[in-house]
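Q: What residues go here?
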């Protein structure tokens, strides 16, 4: 390497080999000085699953800023993933190429080739029997988990279709959520396909029901995991189970295949399909609207919208906030029927709850349904405003007829007043069954919401009661 130095002056010097070389110009003297370049040690090593083929020695001496070719070769059952600069001192031209160039600008460097083990080849599924449309299906759940839950035991808050395997494709309001995506991944040609899951939280990625990548614990930071699967052309069932808690959810699933010339892209409508061709159905329950208070024996007018209907519907009720549903319709309705009047059984206290919901779903079983907002079912008939009772010195509360009767008229009691919890269990009972007023002790009743039921000469009445501290 030569260093050019311009020296202002007019003095003349003789040329001498292997020494300073001087030349005159109009602006002065040009000094040409031969200097030796700096050299560094480049070490190239292979991770599990492969070998290094260039350079031939593990450690070589290279000139500063000169380019050196590095090449890796995977063992059988592995594929090359990337080059990792463990020293952070090298400049690698292309980290994802099995053969690339590297240069060292400032110091020695150690570079490692990373390989990924290939999951065994899978057999494509036959999806010729049904029509398809682009995109994936999703089911959305709400919960606070620290490990990946078994979604098959849970009831989703909503379900629908989406155009990509990404958190942005699914409507959500809470950070504490779970999402299950599924569809058919289209493989255009035989080759090795790499799947990338970039997310926080936890996940499990399955191809044909075989787990190819997972992290079932809760991660607070975003991490990229990858897995390589050897696939032949055809369609494969692809499913991603994801959950997150506390932090803002982040999730993107991508794929690539160097064997068939496919770059890394988010899995979207170009790569995944779902059964059914035509407009996507949607069910929305519009009545009950949520917040209503019904009594045993009342009739609930259920109404829903079934957009792009493709089958029949039936309705079910939950009184445990969605943990389980029980049918409230004996037969399924045609797709053009969107109302149903359901009478709550009058004598069944098992329906008493503050977390009732009605679900309307497709039949025969498809994947679309709608769920109402929660409403309340109480015993008897009476005023609807809560009565707040506070513990007094005597740990008792005086209940008068005017507190319980809708009209405010006083009627003689024909039985004890009872305090019932949301499970229909009696937790306290009054006295003076034939008087105009009764006293119900709440000394041992826990703080919470209850239903006060009182029988008079003319009616059975009930009212919400909040036991405060």
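A:
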């Amino acid at each position: 390497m030569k260093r050019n130095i311009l020296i202002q002056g007019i003095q003349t010097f003789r040329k001498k080999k292997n020494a300073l070389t001087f030349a005159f110009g109009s602006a002065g003297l040009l000094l040409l000085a031969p200097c030796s370049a700096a050299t560094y040690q480049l070490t190239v090593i292979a991770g599990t699953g492969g070998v290094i083929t260039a350079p031939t020695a593990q450690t070589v001496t290279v000139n500063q800023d000169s380019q050196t070719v590095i090449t890796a070769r995977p063992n059988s059952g592995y594929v090359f993933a990337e080059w990792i600069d463990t020293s952070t001192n090298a400049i690698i031209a292309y980290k994802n190429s099995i053969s690339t160039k590297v240069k060292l600008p400032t110091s020695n460097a150690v570079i490692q080739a990373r390989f990924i083990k290939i999951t065994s080849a899978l057999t494509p599924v036959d999806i010729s029997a049904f029509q398809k449309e682009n995109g994936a299906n999703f089911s959305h759940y709400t919960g606070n988990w620290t490990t990946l839950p078994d979604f098959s035991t849970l009831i989703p808050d909503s379900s629908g279709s989406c155009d990509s395997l990404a958190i942005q494709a699914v409507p959500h309001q809470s950070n504490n959520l779970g999402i299950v995506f599924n569809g058919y991944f289209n493989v255009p040609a035989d080759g090795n396909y790499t799947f990338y899951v970039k997310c926080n939280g936890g996940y499990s990625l399955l191809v044909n029901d075989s787990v190819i990548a997972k992290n079932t614990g809760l991660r607070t930071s975003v991490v990229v995991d990858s897995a390589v699967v050897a696939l032949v052309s055809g369609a494969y069932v692809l499913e991603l189970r994801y959950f997150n808690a506390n932090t803002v959810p982040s999730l993107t699933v991508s794929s690539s295949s160097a064997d068939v010339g496919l770059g890394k892209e988010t899995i979207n409508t170009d790569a995944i399909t779902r059964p059914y061709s035509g407009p996507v159905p949607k069910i929305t329950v519009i009545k009950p609207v949520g917040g209503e208070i019904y009594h045993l024996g009342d009739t609930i007018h259920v109404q829903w919208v079934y957009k792009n209907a493709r089958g029949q519907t039936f309705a079910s009720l939950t009184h445990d906030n969605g943990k389980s549903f029980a049918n409230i319709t004996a037969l399924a309705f045609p797709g053009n029927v969107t109302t149903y009047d359901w009478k709550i059984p009058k004598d069944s206290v098992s329906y008493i709850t503050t977390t009732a919901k009605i679900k309307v779903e497709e039949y025969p079983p498809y994947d679309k349904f709608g769920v109402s907002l929660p409403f309340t079912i109480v015993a008897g008939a009476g005023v609807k405003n809560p009565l707040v009772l506070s513990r007094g010195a005597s740990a008792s509360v005086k209940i008068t007829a005017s507190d319980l009767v809708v009209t405010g008229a006083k009627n003689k009691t024909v039985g004890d007043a009872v305090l019932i919890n949301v499970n229909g269990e009696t937790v306290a009972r009054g006295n003076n069954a034939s008087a105009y007023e009764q006293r119900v002790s709440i000394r041992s009743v826990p703080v919470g919401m209850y239903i006060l039921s009182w029988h008079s000469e003319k009616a059975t009445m009930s009212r919400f009661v909040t036991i405060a501290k």
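A: Context that may help when evaluating the design: The radius of gyration is 37 Å. The longest strand covers residues 210-231.
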